[in-house]
Amino acid sequence: MGISKELRGVVDEAVRRRVSMTVRTGAMALAVGALGLSGGISTAALAAPACAVTRSGAPHALYGTLALAVSAASGGETLMVRGTCEGQTTITANTTPLTIRGTGTGIGSTLTGGYQDGSVLTVEKGVTAVVSGVTIMAGTGTMLTPEPERTITIGGGVLNEGTLTINNSYITKNFAVDGGGIEDRGGILTLSNSTVRENNGGFGGAISVEVGSATVNSSYITANKAFQGAGIDAGTGATVTLNSSRVNTNKAFTYGGGLLVVEGSTAVLNDSIVTGNIATYGGGLAVEGVHTPPEEGSTVGSTLTLNGPSMVTENKASAIEGGGGIYFENGAKLNLGPGIVARNTPENLFEVP
Q1: Angle formed at CA 152 by CA 192 and CA 261, multiple of 5 degrees
Q2: Distances from the Cα of 108 to the Cαs of 35, 77, 218, in angstroms?
Q3: What would the pLDDT profile of 174-207 be if each residue is shown by its tens digit?
Q4: CA within 20 to 30 Å of 104's CA: 6, 178, 281, 299, which one?
Q5: Spatial separation of the C-alpha atoms in residues 25 and 29, rounded to whole Å
Q6: Domain range summary for the chain, segments of one domain joined by +
Q7: Which pTM value belongs to this model?
Q8: CB contact burial 178-189 (16+ within 10 A = b; e otherwise)
Q9: Max alpha carbon distance in the chain (Å)?
Q10: Helix/strand number for the chain, H first, E second
């Protein structure tokens, strides 16, 4: 199920070219047309009020960008965001803990990257932050060079390396190679009462988790696209927990329409639904076995657990023996318990010998 470094390089380059072309030729179309898609943000956002940010530590001060307010803030403050704030913001250890509070999604409080380089919001290591009541959109991710001659983008909307809680928010229209909507890279992410919708990525259309943990509570992961793991890509060493959440109508071009659980990672679904997702293999979920030789550091596959009345239903895999519901490899551990896996196409479960 894993892909070679050569193929990953091809994918990275394809995504880079696609992003570059989109930025050059499609920015106006995105602003005027694409944001009016059903469930998205209407074109009324173009007439949204200007950015206005206030600080609890200096209530009479007014800032025209979130980045300026964050740089002026001290740890323990709350920032109130109104209007549409454009640009990229990084929260550093100098301002932890920090709360960013909007007035609600839509045009009430919007953080937009304006399709410029960078993640809309970055939370650095050692930072504790809470973000609520905002829309995060139009981010293109932070540049990262994981190995020589290979550069990717990570965290289109949000890049988290600290401890980040996102409540009552809407994350949409972002893209990056890893984590189109959110990249949780060695951090602790909690997403509650929120929607991650219509983001694009190479690996993890909505959310990518790399050696970190992500807990998704009462939230929707919907209509995202990716090369693999269109809803959530749980990378090696990741732990992903879904509580009373819904992962639906996401599309992966290879593995894991709803979720991809890679070698050495764990996913637990509690009272959650994975439905209407599409992939070549693992329409609902794809669960990896052991790929890495023991001498290179891996001896275990991944683990998937379905608890409570969790359901994997009405997902589709396009390949013959593709595992419409769940596609899993030898070495992966499945604990289906009381979970329901039904009405998937072409079959509910397919185990790779």
Answers
A1: 50
A2: 15, 21, 22
A3: 999 999 999 999 999 999 999 999 999 999 999 9
A4: 178
A5: 8
A6: 5-45+101-352
A7: 0.86
A8: bbbbbbbbebbb
A9: 66
A10: 2, 39
